[in-house]
Design a protein that fits this description.
By secondary structure, the chain is α/β, with parallel strands linked by helices. The protein has two domains: 39 residues, no CATH class; 87 residues, Nucleotidyltransferase, domain 5, CATH 3.30.420. The protein is built from three helices and nine strands; from the N terminus they run ββαββββαβαββ. The strands form three sheets. The protein has a five-stranded mixed β-sheet with strand order 6-5-4-7-8, covered by helices on one side. Strands 1-2 form a two-stranded antiparallel sheet. Strands 3-9 form a two-stranded parallel sheet. The longest helix has 21 residues. It is elongated, with a radius of gyration of 29 Å. The mean pLDDT is 78.
C-alpha cells in the first residue's frame, strides 16, 4: 500500500515482515538439538535385579556396568576385563578402599559377574569395597 506524504512523495509501508532471519535461527537450533539429543542419552541400558533393601547414593562414584551382552563399562567407557582393575584404580586415584558400584543386568550369568569381581580383587591394589546396584522391589500398597 502506498501513502502520499504532505510533500507529495509516495512511500510504501513496511507491512511485509522479513522472516528469513527467523527461519535461519530456527533451522540452526533444530540442527543443534538434533546433534545433542543422542549425547544426552549417556546411560547404558541395564535391567537391574529388584530387591527390598535399596540405599540411594547421591554422590559421584565409580560404577562398573555389565550389560546383557556381557560388555563391561567403567562409567560410560567400554573396558576389556584385563584392563578393568587399572581403569578403576585410575578413577579411584589409587585408593582401593573407596566404594565401587557394580551394575549388572539380571540376565547375565553369575560366572561373568564373578569374573569381574575376581579381576577387581586381583588388582595390584585390591579393590575390596564392592557394592551391588539394584532397583527397589515394587510393593503393593497395604501389603
Amino acid at each position: 500500500m502506498a501513502f502520499t506524504n504532505p510533500r507529495g512523495r509516495t512511500q510504501s509501508s513496511l507491512s511485509d515482515i522479513n522472516i528469513t532471519p527467523f527461519v535461519d535461527v530456527v533451522l540452526v537450533l533444530l540442527v543443534i538439538f538434533m546433534l545433542t539429543a543422542p549425547i544426552l542419552e549417556s546411560g547404558i541400558e541395564v535391567d537391574l535385579p529388584k530387591t527390598k533393601t535399596v540405599k540411594v547414593v547421591s554422590e559421584e562414584k565409580v560404577v562398573i556396568t555389565i550389560d546383557k551382552k556381557q560388555n563391561i563399562y567403567v562409567g560410560n567407557d567400554p573396558v576389556n576385563i584385563h584392563r578393568l582393575a587399572v581403569s578403576v584404580l585410575d578413577q579411584l586415584k589409587g585408593a582401593g578402599t573407596q566404594p565401587v558400584f557394580i551394575r549388572c543386568d539380571q540376565n547375565v550369568s553369575f560366572g561373568a559377574f564373578a569374573r569381574v569381581v575376581d579381576a577387581l580383587k586381583q588388582s595390584p591394589v585390591p579393590i575390596t569395597n564392592l557394592n551391588i546396584v539394584t532397583e527397589p522391589l515394587e510393593t503393593k500398597p497395604g501389603s
